[in-house]
């Protein structure tokens, strides 16, 4: 399974906690991340990640291109609903291409837990 993991700054602690909670299942996946999210995950969980650019510098678009290519099976994108982002068009493009390609997308921890349970058949 190829899983994309992305979190805005206010949600990065939650992302690290989420990955830690599912480390066994996610450890068996290919993980693709945006830049800063991936650094936090790698440093704090020890899992290997394929880091793209930081979101504001095009990382969302790079992951969106992978989704368009059929190279991603699921996306966890912990979005900050309370803070405006300068790269909002890139975020919208990433969310849109998930719908175009019918790729499972979780934008909060509750749905991310369901996504991992559904995709990775965690015991
Ligand atoms: O901005 C982001 C997603 O839109 C995330 O990017 P970083 O992981 O580099 O902070």
From TrEMBL:
Signal peptide interval: none
Record's protein name: Methylglyoxal synthase
Keyword Lyase recorded: yes
Catalysed reactions listed for this entry: dihydroxyacetone phosphate = methylglyoxal + phosphate
Organism: Halorubrum trueperi
Residue stretches making up the MGS-like domain: 1-123
Residues binding substrate, per UniProt: 8, 12, 34-37, 54-55, 87
Pfam families the record matches: MGS
Enzymatic class: lyase
NCBIfam families per the UniProt record, alphabetical: MGSA, PRK05234.1
Known EC number: 4.2.3.3
């Amino acid at each position: 399974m190829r899983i994309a993991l992305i979190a805005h700054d206010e949600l990065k602690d939650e992302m690290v906690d989420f990955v830690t909670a599912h480390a066994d299942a996610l450890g068996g996946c290919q993980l693709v991340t945006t830049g800063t999210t991936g650094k936090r995950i790698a440093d704090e969980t020890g899992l290997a990640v394929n880091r793209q650019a930081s979101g504001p510098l095009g990382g969302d678009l790079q992951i969106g291109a992978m989704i368009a290519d059929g190279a991603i099976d699921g996306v966890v994108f912990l979005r900050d609903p309370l803070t405006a982002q300068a790269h909002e068009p890139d975020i919208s493009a990433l969310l849109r291409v998930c719908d175009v390609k019918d790729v499972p997308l979780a934008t909060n921890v509750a749905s991310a837990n369901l996504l991992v349970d559904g995709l990775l058949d965690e015991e």
